[in-house]
Amino acid sequence: MTIHKTSLVTIAIERIKSHILENNLKPNDKFLTEKELVEQLQVSRTVIREALISLQTVGILNVKPGGGVYIAEPTLDSINTILKHYYDTHGVKMKELMEIREVIELGALRLIIEKQVDVDIDHLISINESYYQTIIQKQDTKQFDRLFHQALIKSTENEAYFKFSEVISEYFSLVRMDFIEKEDTLIDSYKQHADIIDAIKNKDLPVAQKVLKEHFQPIFRFITTLEEANGTH
Q1: Residue 115, class by beta-carbon neighbours within 10 Å (0-12 exposed, 13-18 middle, 19+ buried)?
Q2: Most buried residue among 22, 44, 75, 120 by CB atoms closer than 10 A?
Q3: Looking at residue 57, what is its pLDDT?
Q4: Where do the domains of the chain lie, and which CATH numbers do they carry?
């Protein structure tokens, strides 16, 4: 049986988390190097790098270019606690969460383009191509879609904005939503990612925001259908 790259990344992430727990590592502790992780987990450097990127985006690790890997400082815990308590007490409407997510990402595009941030375009393209590969190989696309949107917000170079968006994303994950897209819809999503990248390169904010809003429309339609079926619309 062939083990796909996506599965290897997931396995690497879980083993890294286990290593952190087993060794009782604390914030700012130095972690293993890429080379040490490759040797220890017996996977490629590409797999390790994707695992590290994923763990950095969720605030578990801090990867310093040329400076090693460290355990990240926990942040925004109080906001996260408040949101979790609100969810447990009142629940939340999926459409409200999607509206918040849309506002955050539209704002990220504005920050990137108006601040003229030097975005790592190659990194965004690489994630999107991995997303495409999961589509044509009929694998779960959620990981690379999430990585793309995380990288987009990370590109604002506004750490507080990024970390706040991650709290909202975690809150969003509390709501179970079985949204299954057809292959042609996923291909459209891949193309929209590419169009957003091009708009960022061209510093064209209206186009970038227009494409992003179109990108979220299938989810909004799905939520509306669910609400109508449940009589909550």
Answers
A1: exposed
A2: 75
A3: 75
A4: 5-71 (1.10.10.10), 77-230 (1.20.120.530)
